[in-house]
Please model this.
Amino acid sequence: MGNRVRWLVTALALALLAGGVYAQIEVVRYLNQETDPSIVAIQRAWINDFVEQNPGIDVILEGAPAAVINQRITTYIQAGAPLDVVHADGGSAAMLAAQGLLEPLDDVIEALGGRDAFLPGRLLIFEDKVYSINQAATSPVLHYRTDLFEAAGLEPPTNWEELMHAARTLTTGDIAGIALPGGENRSTTIYSGLFLWQNCANYFDRDLNVDLDNERTREALQFYADLLEYSPPDAAAWAFTEPMESFYAGRAAMVFYWNGLDLTYRTNPGLLDVVSVVQTPEGRMKVTEQGGRYISLFANSPNVEASKQWIQYIFTPENAQRLSEVQGQLYPPATYEAMELLRTSEAPNLQIYGDLLFDVVFPSSEFAYNQIFDGGGINPDTCEMERTGTLNPLVSVVWNSNLYARAVQQVAYGGMSVDDAVAELQRNLEQQVEVARQELGQ
Amino acid sequence: MARSASARGIQRGGDRATEFRAPTWWDVHQDRVVGFLMFLPLVTLIVGLTVYPITRVLTTSVYQQSLYSQVAEYVGVRNFVTVLQSEAFVRSVRNTLVFTFGGLAIQMVVGLLIALLVHAKFPLRAPVRGAMLFSYLVPYVVAALTWRFMMSDATGILNYLIRTSGLGIPASWFGSPDYAMLGVILVNAWKNFPFMVLVFLAQLQSIDTQLYEAGAVDGTTRWGAFRYITFPSLLPIILVVGMLRTIWNFNNFEVVFLLTQGGPLGRTETLPLLIYRFIFGEFSMGRGAALAVIVFLILVVMSLIYWRLYERAQGKFE
Model:
């Protein structure tokens, strides 16, 4: 009995000691949307190195796929639970910044060389404070099958007419001219929104009022609906991954995508010889989407300083280069210094691009529109993109409501006239934006 | 006797006074207190896991609250009015009823037929009965994604077979406005029919074989035996599993969400998906909670109807 008590007391003391030691370690929870094993492996390697260099800090990688990460974040918020570093989409990052839920990262930016060290479109700035860093400021490009284009005597499309013509010409019994998402989801909203901007229209005007009930929007929406005719028949249920899967499987002649050749290299290397990429074809104006995966720090984090150290570590030129070497197109470096490092990289994933990465893919950012940073930045009168610097958290409403995608479906598959679909879209989006404004206190 | 002695209280001046004392509160309530303490963990669990969430949903339904904020504003029944007036509500109710009862009918019929088949004696009956359970053992996510892959235009074997067979039907059901609902109903039915098989088989095995022997003496045909013996014996359990499956189908989120996300054109958007849309699409906890309350009330009414039918069936059978 005596021995038992002694063992029990000893075990209890050891447990308390271990708990006490662990309590002194600052734990940074890194909520991340990456599920690609190669990127997860890089992140794990970062964590190992970081923890080794910073003995007082531990980093826990918490994965939540892109489709559910917003749910995870909002669950934390509703539960009143603290969050540390999150890797969210731009709409959510803007919404969180506008709600005052994020911690400014200006000291991290200074440690990384200041704002000027970052490439354009990388920093989410609200009321002159940096709240988030865009880690994946990439733009979709058009992947196309060179063999099919050559056989049909076509050049890669440079404008809407050529795009439609190529899609129509290349559609045969077994091949779809173009693989496009047509589901009622964010993917369709983003891809069809690209054509909206190219037609000099936008979801919001300069005052961030919904501005869709106009001829330009109707044209753009109709064009996308018409293109869907040349997409595979199950496109009505497609989101982000299916178009590229269709392309990999050799069932489509063209596809827009953010990260392509590196994935093709791993998925279907046999296809690489007959695939190339060009920038997105132009409409009335030359513009494309700027995507993003934003690193932010929650203001209620119990470990602010350790979290900042972790963010700074992620964006060191060497680590940014390592990430880009895994998926060059998806993760172009955020700083000039890292971009220069990447130019000399001999990573196999980058070699498959040849010069395309630096000549075609990365330069797309020069005419890429970031609707979150530059709210109302498409001028319908001049057909020019303007850097308004107005943070637009309402983009989140467009993306999550899927109302634009629903309008596309109504026209493409439901037989509704584009006039009615756009009128309904304007009405419903106005209502939801109004509610969001009230909740934002605007 | 001891009780009456004790009730008299402590005897003054007597040596035996200490043997008799007035009952303490603990003496009187001991059994109840111990019983209550043993019951307490269960009560706590029920309150924590059932009563609290239901109460929270009820209270949330009368507030306007964004997902990105913990601040809430009382709005009375406005969320209910907004939900009931929403264009998606009527469509979702209709979709939910089609999905629920379409799936229920298929599961019932297929489950009953297979239960009757595997109830009969034949070689390798045990492994065949085991194999029947396969789809029920597969998680919803795996089942839905497997069917989605099989119907995929890029990689699907079923898609390929339909395409090359010249049947004249869409090869990709989940992307077809006309076939998407049928697709999700069939996948849900495939996933869940073994539950019906299990329950019906258990009930079939409990039917007294003398009833069939007596019927045979009277010259009853196979159909007659089914109609007058088997079916009435199964009726109470049909109503019970019917109620359970109605509730489960009604609340099913995974199958529809993973296969179609409610599309195309909202043709498969059921009430659980509409709740999801209100909360995560429109960021409105209040509207989502209001619709959840409405769904709860619909299910309560349905359950009452089932119970009434069950009692009637039991009465007839007895």
